Amino acid sequence: MKTGNDEVVDLFQDKVSELLLRHRSILDSISKHAETAVRINRAITKSVTDCGCISINARKQHLPAGTSLEECRKYMLSHLEGHLCENCREVIEEEIGNHLFYLTALCNLLGFKLEDIFFKEYEKLKALGYFHLS
Ligand SMILES: [Zn+2]
Fold first, then answer.
1. Which entry of 33, 42, 62, 99 is 20 to 30 Å from 106 by CA?
2. What is the pLDDT of residue 70?
3. C-alpha 79 to ligand 1 mean position (Å)
4. What is the Å distance from ligand 1's center to 20 Cα?
5. What spacing in Å lies between the alpha carbon of 82 and ligand 1's midpoint?
6. pLDDT score, position 3
């Protein structure tokens, strides 16, 4: 029995495998994965256009000449203003959770261990640092 928080990804993947009855076909999981990604973006958009707790104020990013990679963070804008209200945060979090479910379902169907992917990506980020950004 796994119990530690460090194994939550593994526990989650096992549970998704148990529950994956309705979307057993890879085609169902592919389409649900895409649909849930769209629903995350829709929920974020509704936070801007329906609720209004956040707004987007976008413009070209400007970096002063000679800015080092480490200093970039100071000048790069998120284009986001405000803070998610409790309701929007809850909705977006739920949509992200649904997306994780179908991402994990794809991993299960194709024989990937999600924890291994997290670890490999973490190692890659550690090794590449700022240079992983494209
Ligand atoms: Zn809101």
1. 42
2. 77
3. 17
4. 32
5. 10
6. 52
Answer whether residue 56 is part of any domain.
yes
Q: What is the CATH number of the domain that holds 75?
A: 1.10.287
Please give the tally of structural domains in the chain: 1
Task: List Cβ<8 Å contacts ≥24 apart for 28-36.
Answer: 29/102, 29/105, 29/106, 29/109, 30/106, 32/102, 32/105, 33/99, 33/102, 33/103, 33/105, 33/106, 36/95, 36/98, 36/99, 36/101, 36/102
- The first and second tokens of residue 54, run together, are 């956040």
pLDDT of 35? 97
Which tokens is 121 given? Answer: 């990506």
Q: What is the pTM of this model?
A: 0.85
Among 53, 41, 59, CA closest to 81:
53
Helix ranges, the chain (H): 8-19, 26-46, 72-75, 86-110, 114-128
Residue 5 in tokens: 């928080």
Spans of the chain below 70 pLDDT: 1-6, 22-23, 130-134
pLDDT on residue 20:
83
